[in-house]
Specification:
about 400 residues; mainly alpha; Growth Hormone, Chain: A; about 80% helix
Length: about 400
């Protein structure tokens, strides 16, 4: 097996462990708030604060960790994040008040970066012709962990209690960090301020913000995370409505959400390979428009089984957006900027994840979840249409330039 592929698979298991440790603990925080003395009438407010705290801090910190990765080495940033997150997950088991939990979640956002730094390593070592496939596989690893986490977390919480399940989550992410320490090697990190050519200026974030391709991809990531997080917090309530009661709604919601993840595991590498063969922009446009159309169809769905089918199809198209966008980010930035580019994508993802539930909650309060599905679909489809128009405009401009020079 080529060395780059061996490293990729080690990091694949690392992001799987990181993602599973996150979903083992974070989805159960609203239930944990009851143990901390929060009353039922205010638990939704506290749950929103607890979740948003990490996203807010993470969105601010991600570009800084990306800069540190470029200066001191991406492997060091993966290890730093893994060891820090292990301590923080374990700390959750010892909090006694809701405000302490908010503080620990802010620390969670502060030290994050395991997945984007791992993605950055893979993007740096994978051959150019395998870039889409390798990032698609990494996305699939993240989704696999997202599916396994709630299952193991629920079983552990049932058997040992919520507090001990948080400690287990810390141990799992610690194992991921140890695996990187033992088996992952990275080329010599550049010295701070070092560049390939002494005549070149060091790459800066200010220069990145002038990169139209990069800015377009970051905006797409914000819109993508915003749109899918508009309806995610309300899914269990909608599923309960479709099946006619709250009885078994948690189990049904877990099953349907796992279908989306399974679709992503299957489809992510396929979309990456298609992007290599047919062009990344073309595949990204297809995924955006198709996922927008499919999720809008939920407005008309009244049966739970049909809702599950449509969600699975949505997951198939949705799975191509993240890895292909990441691939285009890599192609639009210099290798010296690789860590910072993935820091920016992480920041965009977290910013969208923070805004989505807020907008979705307001829309749900005003119009109901059926209209949130339509709003999500419109955002995704319009993003795809805008990218299509821009791609066609750039193609015409480049064709005109070639004819003029000829």
């Amino acid at each position: 097996m080529p060395s780059w592929k061996r490293t990729m698979w080690i990091l694949w298991f690392g992001v799987l462990f990181c993602s599973s440790s996150y979903t083992m603990s974070v989805p159960f925080l609203p239930l944990f708030l009851f143990d901390l003395g929060v009353e039922e009438g205010s638990v939704n407010l506290w749950a929103g604060v607890v979740h948003s705290a990490a996203f807010l801090v993470g969105a601010v910190m991600a570009p800084l960790w990306g800069l540190m990765a470029d200066k001191y080495g991406k492997r060091k940033m993966v290890i730093r994040a893994g060891l820090s997150l292990a301590v923080i997950y374990a700390l959750i088991a010892f909090v006694q008040t809701p405000w302490q939990l908010v503080g620990v979640r802010m620390m969670h956002g502060f030290v994050g970066g395991f997945v984007p730094a791992s993605m950055s390593i893979v993007a740096s070592i994978a051959p150019k012709e395998k870039l889409g496939w390798s990032l698609g596989m990494m996305q699939a690893g993240t989704m696999t962990g997202g599916i396994l986490g709630p299952l193991f977390g629920g079983l552990l919480a049932q058997a040992f209690g919520l507090r001990r399940s948080f400690i287990v989550a810390g141990i799992i992410i610690l194992l991921a960090a140890v695996a990187v320490i033992v088996w992952v090697r990275e080329g010599k990190a550049p010295e701070p301020g070092e560049v390939k050519n002494k005549k070149e200026k060091p790459l800066t974030y200010r220069m990145a913000f002038r990169n139209r391709q990069l800015m377009t991809m970051l905006l797409l990531l914000v819109l993508f995370q915003l749109s899918i997080n508009m309806f995610q917090p309300l899914m269990s309530l909608h599923i309960a409505e479709l099946q006619g009661g709250l009885q078994g709604a948690v189990l049904s919601a877990g099953f349907i959400l796992s279908l989306i993840g399974i679709a992503g595991i299957v489809a992510s590498p396929v979309w990456g390979r298609l992007g290599e063969q047919r062009g990344y922009h073309r595949i990204l446009i297809v995924c955006l428009i198709a996922s927008g159309i499919v999720v809008s169809m939920q407005f008309f769905v009244k049966d739970l089984w049909l809702f599950a089918v449509v969600q699975f199809i949505f997951g198939l198209f949705m799975a191509g957006i993240g890895p292909i966008t990441n691939t285009l980010v890599v192609q639009s930035t210099d290798e010296q900027f690789r860590g910072r580019s993935f820091g920016l994508t992480a920041s965009a993802n977290q910013f969208g994840s923070m805004l989505g539930p807020l907008i979705g909650g307001l829309l749900g309060l005003a119009m109901g979840i059926h209209y949130i599905f339509v709003a999500t679909g419109v955002i995704l489809a319009l993003a795809g249409a805008a990218l299509l128009l821009r791609t066609q405009r750039e193609r015409r401009a480049s064709g005109g330039a070639r004819r003029a020079s000829g």
